[in-house]
């Protein structure tokens, strides 16, 4: 089952002083196991462009639409047997401690 894992910042990071997991090791392990299909860090939110259409009019604005302190900073496309496996993969990601990870399955094709 495919999951999109959004990598997000968080205003309440973990305060545990244990060593932070290594992102390069996480990527290598999950790439080798075939659980991570692709992923990347995103450019800063200042580079975002928001596109909307309202009443037939194109509205384009600089920056993210939502005013929020928590932002999506990257993503990973995962292939896991089930949600439990996806949770375990996310649990080992460094941003599970410093940010938050949102797992979302892909909708069934229509």
UniProtKB/TrEMBL annotation:
Pfam families: YCII (PF03795). It comes from the Bacteria. InterPro entries: Dimeric_a/b-barrel (IPR011008), YCII (IPR005545). Transmembrane segments: none annotated. Residues 1-104 form the YCII-related domain. Belongs to the YciI family. This is Transcription initiation protein. It comes from Dactylosporangium siamense.
